[in-house]
């Protein structure tokens, strides 16, 4: 049974604060191991990557076989079943169409002093996409990371995916192929992150690394940050469902369990103004758990981190939602739109009973890489802007410079930066 | 004398690679001290902040005097000279006008399946702005950080600025007042970053912290990242000037020195296709250094990190510029616009002889917080988007869900996430 609390009961604020402060991740101290691996890849390049791959993945490679050949990708494609491939194509087309609308516009304008100002957006020159091996090797995540980079115009997209004992998920390779990934390497862990960031004889360095990974991958990304850009470090996934008595309890239960099946550290929360709905959802969760293949994982997540919060009125729930800043927010209520308009902090909002989060995870078109662990208070889901950067552009003519010079000189002098002031003044002496 | 290299001479690539790999910052190992300070502020709140302020700033405070009272800010304003205040107002108005154009638009569209998709941008709920004390306490930086946050619609902007032995730069308080900062605290260092991120009895926590600082501040920002958002960790500043024989060597020298006076670790680089211009610039730098108040700093920067690169043709310079990915790029050449169009990596570009970087530092209107240390390869200058986040929104009706269900179910099953597939399928059984 998940935690159940009621906003009208004594001790509610304390119970809510405890729920919000819950640590769902055990932080593994792998930083020293990761530091050594990165230093070794910096020093020995391919040879170090090959050594670690032998040790951690049980796979013997050479510089010539680090990269997965195009022919292997074709073979993998041939092994995928047609229905799944078609689903991947649907997903890819919808993700691409959505993200095309995120492409930013350049700007140039001339102000009343004749000064031209603006900016230009350019794509990051090369991006590395990390894909975990094993059970967390999701083809949908390949699309969600690679398609926005492609839409941004990144000219070189490189993927690293470990293949423990040589095993690779053919759907991951199919997704990479569909998304237009340019190079795929069969390496993983901190050694792959280091190779992407620093480059080796075989792998040219990239400028930014994105994608989820285990504790080693996360620690390596933190360490190479600065040398390259990185995306957010993803934590365990979470969903918050906001529902009134009009909602279907079995559907809510299914969505709570879809979140919970990801990971024992995932979190599913229901907030409702209807205690009877809360009861019905709790019963439906227990019933559905009985036939779920990943019931162990989902059950542990629901027991340890799940919560049902009953409030007097749904409007009261909005400040609670903003404090959770959930990665995923589902709203199943009569006035879903106006409730949504009152939310400040959420990675993605799914409106109405016919929008299960799983649609957004796969084929809605919006990105499923979203801010976790309350970081929606200050960050956004992955998008095209994460693969572009903005260069500001300024041009003064002699008149514009003359008009702005007094203020610039005054500020330079006030800050004790005389060479700044002089670099402006010298242009007036003609 | 700065380094001089020629692209047509043997060993050029090696010399350029060495220049690019130069480490300009000595990394201070303050992480353990910072960890302890943050833990102490987490445990003891105000009392810890007050203790560290007494120890590091020689200033005795109470919970009641941590915050700078509005009356003190009014007094500081009265002490500023009118010319400098007017210059700050000019700067503020231009920064605001420029950044208003960066406000992003929300989107909502309905696709051919009747699915509604889009996103909504919202401001970060509270932002902390760190301002260094002492000589690096720049009022222009207060404007550059606070104005975009205000334009973004951040409802609460909090500033922390240390006042060693009680001293405060009145222009910094004036800039905060002008920019609409809501609360100002006279605290600094890791203790200020911790107080902003974690909150104390007196200081409510923020969701994002921006602004430059010393090694302790930088280490503290890295440590609280995740709990709050942070901006880039700024390194020493740099300028790259790209010039042909038409450029004025004295103006170029003035700009190189304006950069160099910031810090002995700053870097000023000239790339030109005209060896005679290179000679003239070198002579002008030496001549101008003789009368510069900060000649010691500027001279050391130019000697240790300055460089003059002569190339056969300016078009050859573009790949070199992209490898530097300079924070500031000035182009003084006949075909400045077409050269600028060929640049991928730069924080800001200043076009033509009448656009010294100092104009952009103060009153151009674009932001002077720009990516350093080659990070313009993957990141942008500070802007309105840094104070907002995007929530994606999805709504399916029954028909849209029915159309998308097969692909979503296929992918859920292919990824071994049956509860995902079931959360879609359960909605079809009606």
Automatic annotation (TrEMBL), chains A, B:
It comes from the Bacteria. It is an enzyme of class 1 (oxidoreductase). The keyword Metal-binding applies. Binds 1 zinc ion per subunit. Pathway: Amino-acid biosynthesis; L-histidine biosynthesis; L-histidine from 5-phospho-alpha-D-ribose 1-diphosphate: step 9/9. The keyword 4Fe-4S does not apply. GO terms for molecular function: histidinol dehydrogenase activity; NAD binding; zinc ion binding. GO terms for cellular component: cytosol. PROSITE patterns: HISOL_DEHYDROGENASE. The active site is at residues 327-328. It holds the Pfam family Histidinol_dh. Keywords: Amino-acid biosynthesis, Histidine biosynthesis, Metal-binding, NAD, Oxidoreductase, Zinc. GO terms for biological process: L-histidine biosynthetic process. NAD(+) binds at residues 130, 191, 214. Its EC number is 1.1.1.23. Substrate binds at residues 237, 259, 262, 328, 361, 415, 420. Zn(2+) binds at residues 259, 262, 361, 420. Its cofactor is Zn(2+). It catalyses: L-histidinol + 2 NAD(+) + H2O = L-histidine + 2 NADH + 3 H(+). Belongs to the histidinol dehydrogenase family. Catalyzes the sequential NAD-dependent oxidations of L-histidinol to L-histidinaldehyde and then to L-histidine. This is Histidinol dehydrogenase. The gene is hisD.
């Amino acid at each position: 049974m998940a935690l159940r609390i009621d906003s009208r009961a004594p001790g509610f604020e304390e119970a809510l604060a405890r729920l919000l402060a819950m640590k769902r991740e055990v932080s593994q101290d792998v930083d020293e191991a990761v530091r050594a691996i990165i230093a070794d890849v910096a020093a020995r390049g391919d040879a170090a990557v090959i050594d670690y791959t032998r040790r951690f993945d049980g796979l013997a490679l050479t510089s010539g076989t680090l990269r997965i050949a195009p022919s292997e990708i074709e073979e993998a494609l041939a092994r995928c079943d047609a229905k799944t491939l078609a689903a991947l194509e649907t997903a890819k087309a919808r993700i691409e169409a959505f993200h095309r609308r995120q492409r930013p516009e350049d700007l140039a304008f001339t102000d009343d002093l004749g000064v031209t100002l603006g900016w230009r957006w350019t794509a990051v020159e090369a991006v590395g996409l990390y894909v975990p091996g094993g059970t967390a090797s999701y083809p949908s995540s390949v699309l969600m990371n690679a398609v926005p980079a492609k839409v941004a115009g990144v000219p070189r997209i490189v993927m690293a995916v470990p293949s423990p004992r040589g095993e690779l998920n053919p759907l991951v390779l199919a997704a990479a192929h569909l998304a237009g990934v340019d190079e795929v390497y069969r390496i993983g862990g901190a050694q792959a992150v280091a190779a992407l960031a620093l480059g080796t004889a075989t792998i040219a360095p990239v400028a930014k690394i994105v994608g989820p990974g285990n504790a080693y991958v996360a620690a390596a990304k933190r360490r190479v940050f600065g040398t390259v850009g990185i995306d957010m470090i993803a934590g365990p996934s979470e969903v918050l469902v906001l529902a009134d008595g009009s909602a279907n309890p079995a559907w809510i239960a299914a969505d709570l369990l879809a979140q919970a099946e990801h990971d024992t550290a995932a979190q599913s929360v229901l907030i409702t103004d209807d205690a009877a709905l809360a009861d019905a959802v709790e019963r439906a969760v227990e019933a559905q758990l009985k036939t779920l293949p990943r019931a162990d994982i989902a059950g542990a997540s629901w027991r340890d981190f799940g919560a049902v919060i009953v409030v007097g009125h749904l409007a009261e729930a909005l400040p609670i939602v903003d404090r959770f800043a959930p990665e995923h927010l589902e709203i199943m209520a009569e006035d879903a739109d106006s409730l949504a308009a009152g939310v400040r902090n959420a990675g993605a909002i799914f409106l109405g009973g016919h929008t299960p989060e799983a649609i957004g995870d796969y084929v809605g078109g919006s990105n499923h890489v979203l801010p976790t662990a309350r970081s929606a208070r200050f960050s956004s889901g992955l998008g095209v802007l994460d693969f572009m950067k903005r260069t500001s552009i300024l041009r003064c003519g002699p008149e514009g410079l003359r008009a702005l010079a007094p203020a610039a000189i005054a500020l330079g002098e006030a800050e004790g930066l005389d060479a700044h002031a002089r670099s402006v003044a010298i242009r007036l002496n003609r």
